[in-house]
Design a protein that fits this description.
With 222 residues, the chain is α+β, with helices and mostly antiparallel strands. The chain folds into two domains: 105 residues, no CATH class; 90 residues, no CATH class. The chain is 28% helix and 27% strand. The chain contains five helices and ten strands; from the N terminus they run H-E-E-H-E-E-H-H-H-E-E-E-E-E-E. The strands form three sheets. Strands 5-10-9-8-7-6 form a six-stranded antiparallel beta sheet. It has a two-stranded antiparallel sheet with strand order 1-4. It is globular.
């Protein structure tokens, strides 16, 4: 079934103006908001989970510090630039810590993590910049399940989510193709809505589907 042309036009317009808004927020992460977040951050309880967690053994073996803690700013405006789920010290698993050789609490390591996930809390919590799929009616076209993880499932889907309370509409598109060398061409435009969201209730920590513009031409299927 073909996607109605009026939805394609609406999606292109939405993605354009959102890219401008989010692009400005991303640029401000580099300076001055990122450094200000680091300067004002403190150790607090995560809004989405515990304040402390042990790193996974495999990352400890790779040099992580062994312990994750949630660190973020509580200043109202600066909070938009927090990493909502993980804070400033990387993933609770310890992957970022291992990359930083166990020195993830240094200013440089915190800054590298923050710009890796720029303008994160704003993109995760604003109803303008995030789609809460449990509150939406989902329509979709294309293939139900595609994935860039092994085993690769090629295909595409276009999704349209309508908030049942506000009527706000969100659009998302994804295409996955396998490259001859075994890598994956993965294109994601708009909100990360999937056809399965029409039939599944998402957990509390996976309610929000953020806006993204991402094209990975040769990523590894892992």
């Amino acid at each position: 079934m073909n996607v109605p042309i009026r939805y394609i036009i609406a999606a292109a317009w939405q993605w354009t103006w959102l890219a401008i808004v989010i692009g400005a927020g991303v640029l401000l992460t580099f300076f001055p908001m990122g450094p200000l977040v680091i300067a004002t951050a403190r150790f607090i309880r995560s809004p989405e989970g515990p304040a402390l967690a042990s790193h996974e053994p495999k990352y400890i073996a790779q040099g992580s510090s062994g312990l994750w803690a949630y660190k973020a700013t509580t200043w109202p405006l600066l909070r938009l630039w927090n990493n909502l789920e993980d804070g400033l010290l990387g993933e609770p698993s310890g992957k970022h810590s291992a990359r930083e050789k166990g020195n993830e609490r240094s200013v440089g390591a915190q800054y590298r993590w923050l710009i890796r996930n720029p303008f994160n809390q704003a993109k995760r919590t604003s109803r303008l910049l995030a789609c809460y799929v449990n509150d939406c009616v989902i329509d979709w076209w294309g293939n139900y399940a595609v994935t860039d993880k092994a085993p690769i499932v090629e295909g595409w889907h276009f999704c349209r989510a309508t908030d049942k309370a506000t009527g706000r509409v969100y659009y998302g598109f994804r295409r996955v193709r396998a490259n001859p060398d075994g890598t994956v061409n993965n294109l994601v435009l708009g909100f990360k809505i999937r056809p399965e969201h029409a039939n599944q209730v998402q957990d509390a920590d996976d309610l929000d589907k953020a806006f993204t513009l991402r094209w990975q031409r040769a990523s590894q299927p892992d």
